[in-house]
Give the backbone structure.
Amino acid sequence: MSDLTSFTLADARDGLRRKSFSATELADAHLSAIERARQLNAYVLETSAQARAMASAADARLQAGDARPLEGLPLGIKDLFATRDVRTTACSHILDDFVPTYESSVTANLWRDGAVLLGKLNHDEFAMGSSNESSAFGPVISPWRRRGSNTPMVPGGSSGGSAAAVAARLCLGAVGTDTGGSIRQPAAFTGIVGMKPTYGRCSRWGIVAYASSLDQAGPFARTVRDAAILLTSMAGHDPKDSTSMDRPVPSYEAAIGNSIKGMKIGIPKEYRLDGMAGEIDRLWEQGADWLKAAGAEMVEVSLPHTKYALPAYYIVAPAEASSNLARYDGVRYGLRAPGRDIIEMYQRTRAEGFGPEVRRRIMIGTYMLSAGYYDAYYVRAQKVRTLIKQDFEDCFAKGINAILTPATPSAAFAIGEKGEGDPVEMYLNDVFTVTVNMAGLPGISVPGGLSGEGLPLGLQLIGRPFDEATLFSLAQVIEDAAGSFTPERWW
Amino acid sequence: MPVDAGTVRRIAHLARIAVAEDEVEHLQAELNAMLAFVEQLSEVDVDGVEPMTSVTPMVLKRREDKVTDGGIADDIVRNAPAAENHFFLVPKVIE
């Protein structure tokens, strides 16, 4: 049965409808694959009983010819999404026995459309990280290794479990969140497709908040089409999130195969970093050539404030996190450490419950928002953000349809290799992705090739607000040219 | 060094995170590394630039002012570390 895990989500959907196999067989094949792959540490909770019950309900629908868009398709969900009666931890010790009594809007949309929950996926604690090493459940091991090496590699982060599970065929697709690159960077590191939609496209209700003005949910999949299918179900207006956009959701799958002839693709000169690996530059040129061959026109553009996006992010995100994470106080839910009085109880709870990276970001955010520093840090960063957004708007006003960049400045690195001495070293991973969050734009990472060491490399396409469809059309052209990348199974 | 040891202790208190004395030096170095990194923003000319307040241009939606939820006290205290009769229990606050 294990070959059922090698289908794309679209092929599995069609196979279920043709009754070539059942949703129960499909779920079982994935549950066995998950069991065999426990050393990857991609899942922090396997929900096999629930998966079988949901699959069996899907089989009844399929039998009755009453299949919904995702009927019977098994997915993994980042543990940042609240799932009713299913433990949800944000991969933090502070929430380690939290069982929500409600369902996040994005996952509710997936179940409404018939999808099956396989389990909850590992990620960096509170989505703060770029390597999945800050999780309270320990790091995720990437299914990819350097050629001829056994060194365990990171899958990227923060949605590292989502990326590893999709790449290792432990689900047909997965859901993650992206605050500074947390979908696109791990997708690039594991050779799969990851999309961060426009801010407001998916509801944030029921997702554990990190930085509310930057957080967005998005899909991971092994093909561009599969990502388009998932986003169509995830997206939509939600009265419970006042920043979710009240506009119709197109069928993103319909954009697959659309001609890109005559489209203008911006190549931003500021993304050519000093000392960037030659293979990243070559990949970028190759991507431009593929789009040109399909009839698109490459135009050099300028996004002058690019270099300020990452420092501005490291003000806005910690500031919002320090405010959002104030709710973990040992009173209403989660861990409580005893103290002599209520203040000591708060302080001990939060010291014990949060890991080092989370403590660091809360503290720097608290400092930046404290009296006398707010204008110098937070207000200035939000002004820089206006300038970053303006750069993109100027570019789109000149008729640019989308922008092509590398997804990451390098391929994946080994566990323990980065950020030990200096947290900033780790932050630089997000240099190409973070601008997109700052401007609230949609971005997709699509595999472009392998590095000299045999590790996946991704290309990023950045689109106009709410024009995810164009990104899917363009990404499909790259996928058609680049092919797909599967790690050799060693686990 | 914008942040000294005293400032680290003050931030820790504001953030309600217990910091042991032997962690202060390490935290001080990390916080200063982050502040040094964001220092680049001071070279950007932001005169006359409005700070971003809404990521996508939209008017905040309003709904009718009426109760749409409630009666779920059981759900609300279900995950509480200590609760009694639908109240959260905390250590004594007022002597």
Summary: Chain B touches chain A through 50 residues (CB under 8 Å). Chain B has a mean pLDDT of 93. The longest strand of chain B covers residues 83-84. The beta strands of chain B are 83-84, 87-88.
